[in-house]
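Working notes for the structural subgroup meeting. M.R. asked for a predicted model of this chain before we commit to crystallization trials. I am recording the input and output together here so anyone reviewing the notebook later can reproduce the run.

Input as submitted:
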Amino acid sequence: MQVTMIGTGYVGLVSGACFSEFGHHVTCVDLDAAKIEALREGRVPIFEPGLEQLVESNVAAGRLSFTTELQKPVAEAEAVFIAVGTPSRRGGGHADLTYVFEAARDIAAALDGYTVIVTKSTVPVGTGAEVDRIIAETRPEAEFDVASNPEFLREGSAIGDFMRPDRVVVGTDSERARGVMRELYRSLFLNETPVMFTRRQTAELIKYAANSFLAAKITFINEIADLCEKVDADVQEVARGIGLDGRIGNKFLHAGPGYGGSCFPKDTLALLHTAADLDTPLRIVQATVDVNDQRKKDMAGRVLEACGGSLQGKTVAVLGLTFKPNTDDMRDSPSLDILPALQAAGARVRAYDPEGMDEARDMLDGVEFCDDTYDTLPGADALLIITEWNEFRALDLARVKQLLAAPVLVDLRNIYDPALMRELGFDYVSIGRPAVAP
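Returned structure, recorded in C-alpha cell form:
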C-alpha cells in the first residue's frame, strides 16, 4: 500500500518506519526542512532504541522516504495519517488542535481518488468529525473517509509496541475504510493480534481513558508507598501481592517520584477539560493529576531530610533527568520540579543523564552537567537517583562511597536493596520500603 504520514515527530516517525517494515511504501512529510534533510542523511532526531536501524534499512529498501512536499504523496496514498503534535494550550490544558486542522486542510487540497484519512495524533472526542467537516467543506467532491487509529507506544519500547501490540483500535463506520485498515494491518491479523473496530468517537476516547487509567494506577501505588513508610511495610511486596490478582495486573505498580512524559500529563488534562465542557466531572482523574503534581514537588524534601534538614551550601549529585529510561524526552519529567527545588533550598546540583542532557540544558538553569556518572560524585553531600537507567543499576558502590563527601543515597526508583546499602555503610533512602529489609 501507499501510505503517507504527516508529521515526523515521535509518533509519526515510529509509525512510518514500522509500516514500511510491514512492506508498505511510506512517505513521511514534515514542514521542517532541517529535520527532513537530517532524516534523508540517516540522522534520527529522537532517541528510541532500534529506530535508527529500522529507518536506515527501510530507506535502503526503497520503502521509506522523507519530503517537505505534501501534494504528490497525498495524491498517491491510499491512507494518509495525521501524526502532528497536540500540545496542551498554555494556561489551560485543552489539547491544541491547530496542527491537526491545518493538516486536514492541506490534505483536502491534495486528495486524488478515494483516500482514508487517519488521525494518529492523540485527539479529544469529536476531532475526527471536525476533520471530516473541514475536508468536506474544502473539497466537496472529494471521495474519502476519516478514521481514528490511536497509538499506544511507550517511549523506549515503541518499536516492539507497534510490531507486537496488545491491540489495534480503529474507529470508523465505513466498511470501505475498514477494508483499507485491515490491509494496512494485515501482518498483525496474520499474527492474531486483537484488532478492534468501533465508532470513531469511541476510538478517540479509548486512548484518553487508557492513559488516564495508567496514570491513576501509578498515582495509587505512590500513595500506598507513602502509607507503607508510616507503617514499616514494603510497597514492592504490596505491589506484587495485588499485582498477582489478574483483575489488577502487575504493570504500572512501581512507586517513584511521579509520572511525566509526553502523554500522561497532557492527556489527563485534556480528558478533564473535555469532561468539564460536557458537565461530566472525572473526580478520580482530577485527583490523579493533583496528587501527581504535588508528589513531584515534594520529592526534593526527601533529599533535604536525608541531609539533616538543610541543603544550604551543599552539593547534590543527580543521576537521571528524563522522565523514564531509554528516551531523551524531558517533558514533564520529575527532574524539572526536583532540581529547581534543590537549588532553591541552597544546593549546588551536578547532574548526568545518558540521553537527556541536550534537552535538559535548555530546561534547567544553574545546573552543572557532567560527562558521566562518576563525574557528578566527587565531594557531593548526597547522591540522588531520579531515572532508573540500566547503567545506574550496577554502580560501583565502593567507588561511589569513596567519592561522596557523605554516604547519603536517595533512590527514588528503588533500584538497590536497603539491607545491602546499610551493610555497605550508606544512609539509604528509598520509596515506600523499610530502611532495612527483614
